[in-house]
Amino acid sequence: MTDDLVAALRPLLLAEASAEAPASGAEPGDLEQAVWLRLLERLDSDGPPADPPGWLRRAVRSEARRSRRTTRRERPYEHEPAADTERHDPEHLALAAARRRALREAVRRLPGRCPRLVEALLSPNDLTYREIARELGISQGSLGPERSRCLGCLRRMLTPEVAARGARG
User: Are 56 and 35 in contact (CB under 8 A)?
Assistant: First the structure.
């Protein structure tokens, strides 16, 4: 039953989400996903809607309105908080040094050739991909995927440390 309902509603949902997305500030895929989730929740609690196409149209419009409200409320930062480089007081200098130290320690704990790769990326010499690849003895084409894996690993290592520092405000 559910598979038949999903198959029958898929073309209509694609069309409705594509039509509503530009005015809502959302991607069509985001609207689709939200409506599928609503449908699954409804099927779990109340069963299938009496008029599935009508229900779907109302759900898409409702999600589009929610997205417009959210978009209206969100405001970008005037300037990136992390880009506050004008502060040279001792406290901020000490905190910046501690962050750099924590980053360097985490880089040293990375597996395989990741420490050398990340050190090359962080180098003050601003090495090109070609220079980094030559230094590490790997092809330039494999440097991007390797960099992504290494940075993902570094991100996972640093997340607990960053989260443990507590709320700022």
Answer: yes
